[in-house]
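subagent[fold] <- orchestrator: predict structure for attached chain, return tokens only, no commentary.
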Amino acid sequence: MIKIFKLLKANKVLIGIGILLQIAIIFQSCKDELEVPLQGQVNDSDIIFDNDWVTLQLNAAYAMLDLNPATNDPWRSDPSHWIYGEVSSDNAYKGSDPGDQPVIDNVEAYTATSSENNYYGFLWNAIFEGVARSNEAIRGIKKGVEEGDLTSAEAAELEAEGRFLRAHYHFEAKKIWGKIPFVDETVTESISNENVDSWGLIEADLQFAINNLPETSKFVGSGNSWAAKSYLAKVHMYQLDYDAAKPILDDVINSGPYSLTTKYSDNFNAETKNSSESIFAVQHTVNDGASRDDNGNWGHALNFPNGAPVGTTGGSCCGFFQPSQNLVNAYKTDASGLPLLDTFNDSDVTNDDGIASSDVFTPYTDELDPRLDWKVGRRGIDFNGWGIMPGQSWIRNPANGGPYLQKITVFRASQFNNIAIDASNAWASSVSSINTNIIRYAEILLWRAEIMAVQGEGDLGVSLVDQVRMRAANPEDFVKELDADGMPTATPAANYVISPYGSFTGQAQAIKAVAHEYRIETALEGHRFFDLVRRGEASTILTNYLAEESTKRSHLSGVSFSLRSQVYPIAQNIISVSGGLIKQNDGY
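subagent[fold] -> orchestrator:
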């Protein structure tokens, strides 16, 4: 009977917690309604709050890392935040057809409104579902100690895991909405999101995790003390608290278990995920017995080439999330292999915008950073083993989205039979087991370089930047030309030239170079918009971007960036259900 109660409780958490805890506990202010027992609920007295029971709850909290509660238009809450972190930046267009998924059009045009509950409410609910599940585990841990079902040592490590996850979910909410409530395990009714030291509370959770988690993960993808340290450093970097971040980053670099992978592309390959560079990542799997491959990378299901023979001869879908010309230009280098920090956007990398696939096209022949062709699908370049990208015939609406495709969530052709897919699922060709990276080691190096540059320390961070650049310079990882049989040759697909800086000319160049390196290293991974806001550069850079891009993409004509758009609107349905305790962000 004990095991049965454990399973019943787990099912309640997995299926019903979004209603019971997320809405009723977090946002419902009517206490009387909270006192109505849930039909079929198992009483606490029927549960043994031991290690097994708590582990079930922690597994449920981990399961929400993909922010996909029911495979219901999951791109709205994809954990990479390609919509909220990339389409909203200078890295990507929404792409596809105008008017398809119109809320994303509004994100790109900075006209988001609080009435768009189906996106911002869905995202809020998914994130705070993760908070609720984390809190359910933490409550159970405390109950287990009280009733003698858990030892203090067991409880400390389990609570650290729950608080690590709770910190992650609150961080996600904080960077998106700014003004958020901090919901801990004691909350039983709505609380306000005003005058809350959410940064301090997130830091406290991560510090507890650092102090009590083991150095190695219990299972692939779970938290450990090094991941918690890395996350705490990230939290400090988002507050520009360099003095607090610096010793943590030094510890991770000098004593941690992480290192750059030999190949840059390994970070976006289902066969090489959870590498030495992966500090914390959302785990995606397919062919694991889940219905409709529900554990796959569903958040990017819209983002495969449209109508192309990628994953299926019937044509994949749907051509969203197209890299911008500005991003492609950012990968230009000079003849010595260094970035064009100030002039990269003065002219465009040659593209086939407006040129039919049947027409002659001459690709760009000047120098490029090789990372470009692992991130962006360009005409004339192999598309992850699916053949040479032919241009407009693979793009749903070239006039709207431009000539490029994203590649980092598209599985290799050689992996198709293993990486996807439930054949009965109409979306099968666009679901993979490529992980979503939350923090990777390259970011640790570049955050530390940023501090050195800004504070005028040591070599201004050039040695750390050059580590990242020289990994990208590995010729074994260059995208290659294909022979007549479609097999890779030894010849690079483009004129890849990349070299280390060696030294910076001064602090101004150092600061600019580190920021540029972070952009091209992490492009399309969901960080760009939030990084611009973090560094206080969103208004300047995005205003300049829109002035240029509006001449290339008509849908950006007349678009302007306002300071209110540094955070997203809180959905009106969230405010309403809270009884008004949740307050809207300024300007919405």
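orchestrator: received. Logging for downstream: Residues 117-146 form the longest helix (30 residues). The beta strands are 92-95, 278-282, 320-323, 376-377, 405-406, 436-440, 480-482, 488-492.
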